[in-house]
Each structure stands twice: as C-alpha cells, then as structure tokens.
Amino acid sequence: MIGHLVLRNAAHRPVRTAITVIAVAIEVTLVIIVVGLTSGLLLDTAKRTEGVGADIMVQPPSASVFMAFSGAPMPVSIGKKLAQLEYVQAVAPVLVQFNSVNGLDLVYGIQPDTFRQVSNGFVFEAGRDLADPNDILVDDVYARAKKVQVGQTLHVLEHDFHVAGIIEHGKGARLFVLMSTLQEMSGARDKASIFFLKCDRSDHTAAAIDEVSQLLPRYEVRPLKDYMSQITSSSLPGLDIFINVMIGIAVGIGFLVTFLSMYTTIIERTREIGVLKSLGASKGYIVEIILSETGVLCLGGVVVGIGLSYVMRIVLLRLFPALSILITLRWICLAGVIALLGGLLGAGYPAWLASRKDPVEALAYE
Amino acid sequence: MRLLLGAGLEPILKTENLWKVYRSGQVELAALRGVSVEVLPGEFISIMGPSGCGKSTLLHVIGGLARATSGRVLLDGNDLTQMSDAARTLLRRHKVGFVFQRFNLLPTLDAYHNIALAQHIHGNGFDPHRFEAVVGMLGLKERLHHKPAELSGGEQQRVALARAIISEPKIVLADEPTGNLDTKSSESVLVLLRQLNRDLGQTIVMITHNPEAATYGDRVLHMRDGMVVNGLPTH
User: Fold this and answer.
1) Complex ipTM, two decimals?
2) Confidence (pLDDT) at B48
3) Which of B2, B7, B161, B208 is 20 to 30 A from B133 (CA-CA)?
4) Domain extents in chain B
C-alpha cells in the first residue's frame, strides 16, 4: 500500500520528481566519473609502465611510485654498475619529465639502444626511430587525440620537436625524445629518473632485486610485475583527499536537493498528513512514507546516474581519446549507497517535521 | 448542562466538564467550556450551533485529534485525557472513523486505494469481504478506479464514509458531512448515515448547520459559546 502511495505521489508531481531524480543522477555520475578518471589514470599509467617490458625498476631513495614526481637525481653512470650484476641482462636509463602544455603528459627521455634491449623495441605505425636531437616519437593514442602526423612540429616542454614516428601505445609514456636532449632542456646533465632492468630469466627477478639492493641499499627497487598493485589513490599525495572532497560535494548536492524536494512536498501535502493522522497513522508511518518516497526517487536517480556515467564516459573518450576512465562495479555500488544515504539524510528533517504536524492544524491547512 | 440518557447501558462516549482553551501570547480563547455529554452505543447524535460555538473542537477532542485542556473524555472506556499522543493515535486507528466536510480524500489515489489505505493503517491487512460489503452498501462498485477529481461531491463523500467505516470503528465522527454537497447528494449521504446507524448499529456523532440534516439523528445537541445548551430528541 505504501509502495502504491509512494509511486502515485511521485507521479503526481512529475517535474519535481524529474528534478530530484536528475540531481541524484548528477551526484552519482560525479562520483563515478571522478573516481573513474583517477582510477583510470592510475591504472593506465601502471599498465603502460608494466608495458615497458622490464622486470625491475630502480629509483632514487624515497622516490614516489609515480615517477614524474621524483625528479632526476640519479647519475646515468649507475647504469653501468647495474649492467654488471649477475642476473641483469640489460639496463635502460630513462629521464622522466612532466609536460603540462596542451595537456598532461609524461615524456620519456631515452637512449634508443638500451631502451630497445629492455623493451624489445617499439612497434612503428608510421615514420622512424629517434635520430636527431629534436626528434619526438608519439604513441598512436596521443596521435589520434591530438591529430598528430609524422613530419609535424610538436610543441612540448616549451620546445619545438619534429614528429619522427608514431608508435603503438603501452610502453611507458606517450612521448619519447632522446635522453640527451631532455637532459639539456631540464638542466639534468648525465642524470636519470629511473633505470629499467631486464633480467636474464624471469625467475631470477628476486635474485636480481637482492643484488641491486645490496649495490644500492637505499634506493627504491621494485619488481614491475607487481607495479599495478602499488599504484593506488593513496600513493599519490592529495588524491585521496581530492576524491573525498568530490564525494562530499556530490553528497551535499543530493542532500540539499532531497531536503528541498521533501520539504516542499510536506508543505504541499500538509492536509494529506492531517488526513493520515485522522485515520490513525502513527508518526512512524508518516516517516516511512516520506523516506520511502525519497528512497524511490534516489533509486531512480542512481539508475539514471549509472546510465549517465556510461554516456559521459563515451563522450569524454571521444573528446579526449588519451583519457582512461575506469568504471567498476564496486564504485557503482558505492555511489548508489552514497546517493541513497545522502538522500535519506536530506529527507530526515522533513520527515520528522511531517510526523509532528498537529492533525487539526494540518486538516485546516489550505 | 449535563445530559443523562437511558439506564443500564454504558455510554460509548462520555465527556465530563470538558474544557479546551487556546492560548496565543496573552490571549486566551475557550473553545469548550465545561461540556459534559454522553452518547450511548448505537445512537446517532447531531450537534448544531452557530459558527465558532465549538462544535468542531468538540469533535476533534472526542476523536483524539486534539487534547483537552481539562476535563475527561472517555471513549469506549478509555480516558483520552490521560493518554499520550501515540496512545490516542492508536485508539483513533481502531475505534474512530472520521468524515469531513471537504471529504479529504488523497488526490493521488483512486477510490479503491483511498478506502484500502484505512485498512492498511488499521494494521489487520486487506479484508476483501469487508471491503466488498462496504463498497456494495455505499454504491461504489462502479467508481472504485476513479480518482477523487473524477468523482462527484456525493461520490467523494461516500468514499470518505467507506473509508471511515471500513475498519468497523466504535464511533463515526462526521464534521459537516453535507456542507459541500448539493441537496440531492446531501440527502443520499444522510440516508446512508442513518442506514449505517439503523442497520449496523453504528454510533454516529454528526456536526451540522442544517436543521433538516440534524433530524436524521436520534438526538440534537445545541451548542453556543463552547457549551451545550440544549439536547433534545428529534422524534
């Protein structure tokens, strides 16, 4: 009976119902997309780093798992010592820079020979490998997103590069330049941000890690096999806070819209509440009706929000092909629960008010 | 004036020196001034009086919608004046049926669900036999799936009546049930009330402005300035 009453009430004011549902949907979409964007970014970064093909990565002491935030404090000469280790087959030093002009991109400064030994080389879709100091390689995702072609000039890190080739994505960064060029540009002569190591056999990785740790005791030595599990939102400073703030804003939106919607509802239905009380409806019954109606509206908003999230994902990926947006079942459920709780909280005060209305005054309300 | 009726039968409703005073800042308004009445089971009582004499207030107090300032209200042996709000709500749910001048049907529900809602609130679940019997008696079978806006005034009041009696209350309190109806509809509603009273023994207390409507009851109580001034049988 309450279900029937709730659905009828929702249908009676379609505009208000629609606005409430849309507001909750926006709340759900905001949570899913924000988390999806951050998770997608992290996962994409991790996958591409793993995709380099190395077994181990060596970073300076206390370096962040996010390479772009560690600078370039290691001398390139360390690479020669690493190459002499028993279980190490190849060593590729890489200088990492973060480009924030026309987007946010990692740029790898590499030595083509050593990088090829570790990664088995690039797969070229067009053009050739790095040769000149001003050459740049871009991956196919970047090329598609920015409409870049071989032979074009690309302005990156406040420098004009010549696009020498377009490569298949998935080997670390999307942009590759010669290490010497990047060292000159960033004033990090003979320096590297990270060393990628290839072992002679994959089952020698643990032994190789021991060797490296003994050689460079304070350095961060990580097996790349587990790299993805190490990339979480808590690894990046401030990201957890950002996500929580966005969730808080979303909850706030849902709370306020539901509060306003239910508040106007109980004002409008004051006489109905009086009628229910005259029939002997308890305070709990009145509260149950208001909260049930809120639940239905929030549920509708959650369903629409989930759909909207997938639509937004399609639109964003079409506009920004280099983006990665990860929508998981876990966060769909969490967003739904957050929306529902926010909505019920928002309806709590109006429901309480409704239950306490004086029946005689309510019946006389015009 | 205190009115005593019959001997041997316990009144289903009894008020003793009932006062209801409304306070607004420094201003006090006594809507009821020492009202003492008794209603026996199966009686049909009409209450008449000018506007503002306290008729509706009396109905609200004896129905448990409002709390008396002083005095006693005994409904089916339960002292409403000693009860909490929750207890009065429970009593109202099981023992009182209300009919209002403005029908007060829920506009989003059709007639069927307006009546069924009362059963749902009552808590004993949907009783299809009782539902069919009440709907049949009040001539509503063909109108059950219409919303209040699609019903005439008379039909709406019959739905309200069905809602009031569906859970077999001890007493039906009708506040100007014909106040918003034309003559013909008024008559049909009054006939139904009398039929409920005569055939089913339903105790009814009805407020009315209309002297003709008042004659449908067994007794008429006249009120003025918050007091019962006269109580006479209608025939």
Assistant:
1) 0.90
2) 94
3) B208
4) 41-67+82-233
